[in-house]
Design a protein that fits this description.
The protein is of the alpha+beta class. The chain is 55% helix and 13% strand. The chain has a domain of 100 residues: Phosphorylase Kinase, domain 1, CATH 3.30.200. It is built from 14 helices and 6 strands. Strands 1, 2, 3, 4, 5 and 6 form a 6-stranded antiparallel sheet that branches. Strand 3 and strand 4 form a beta hairpin. The longest helix has 22 residues. It is globular and about 70 Å long.
């Protein structure tokens, strides 16, 4: 029943943002083109198509936002105007309760948060579709206090992802079966790639391992700093890493004020 309601909601969003007008009119089935004309009556669809797709994905929630972000990197599949708009997608996801985050940490490590950290910021510094991040101070094995970032997986993600992926696979089959353009875009292959990407991201130990390998690869080059992983506190749902401080690469003026060599940074 939940899947049915979710499917109905997705169809409503598709109609609300006029995505049917964008896609159904290219289908080869005459009856679908008729439906597209009927459902387009009375709606204001003045916004560019890329903007409407982006806003629809945001309305559908975190998993669809993540899907749009992945699609934005596939400019071999997407028209440039749509790819550029999808690149603007950000994880505008409200944080989940800090009590839930603390409970997840304590369950993962079988210790109280106060026994792990000298201090733990209950207010997350960042919240995204898959996880959120808290700053903390960790007392390491040497007894030194280390500033760290604690990444905690959003609760209930696996079941939510499985439900939406199931619907995505079903819709991809429809698109591929009803449109020649759909066959060219290979929607089922795209969803399968997204499926693997998401499940990889749900395992934070895999992320920590990749970061540790990158740190080893870049050691001694004096080019980039990769945060250290604290392996005593890395699990599937939680990872603890060295806190890094810097300026976001998009804030060029701040980088220049800090004396950063912009051409060198670009290279």
């Amino acid at each position: 029943m939940t899947r049915l309601f979710r499917g109905v909601f997705i169809v409503w969003v598709v109609l609300r943002f006029g995505l049917d007008e964008l896609f159904l009119t290219s289908f080869q089935k005459p009856w679908l083109r008729v439906i597209a004309r009927i459902v387009s009556i009375g709606r204001n669809l003045d916004a560019p198509r890329g903007q409407r797709i982006r806003e629809a994905l945001e309305r559908l929630g975190p998993i669809f936002v993540k899907f749009g972000q992945v699609l934005s990197t596939r400019r071999d599949l997407m028209p440039l105007d749509i790819a550029d708009e999808l690149a603007r997608l950000q994880d505008r996801v409200p944080p989940f309760s800090s009590d839930v985050a603390i409970a997840t940490i304590e369950r993962a490590f079988q210790k109280k948060v106060d026994d792990i950290f000298v201090s733990f910021d209950r207010e997350p510094i960042a919240s995204a579709s898959i996880a959120q991040v808290h700053f903390a101070v960790l007392k390491d094995r040497t007894g030194d206090a280390r500033e760290v970032a604690v990444k905690v997986l959003r609760p209930g993600m696996l079941s939510a992802i499985e439900k939406d992926l199931s619907l995505m696979r079903m819709m991809a089959g429809w698109v591929e079966g009803l449109s020649n353009d759909g066959k060219r875009l290979k929607p089922r292959e795209v969803v399968a790639e997204f499926d693997k990407y998401l499940h990889d991201e749900l395992d934070l130990v895999r992320e920590a391992s990749s970061a540790a390998q990158l740190r080893r690869n870049m050691a001694g080059l004096d080019l980039v700093l990769i945060p250290e992983m604290f392996w005593d506190y890395c699990a599937t749902e939680v990872i603890v890493m060295e806190r890094m401080k810097g300026v976001p690469i998009s804030q060029v003026d701040r980088l220049r004020e800090a004396g950063v060599d912009i051409p060198k940074l670009a290279r």
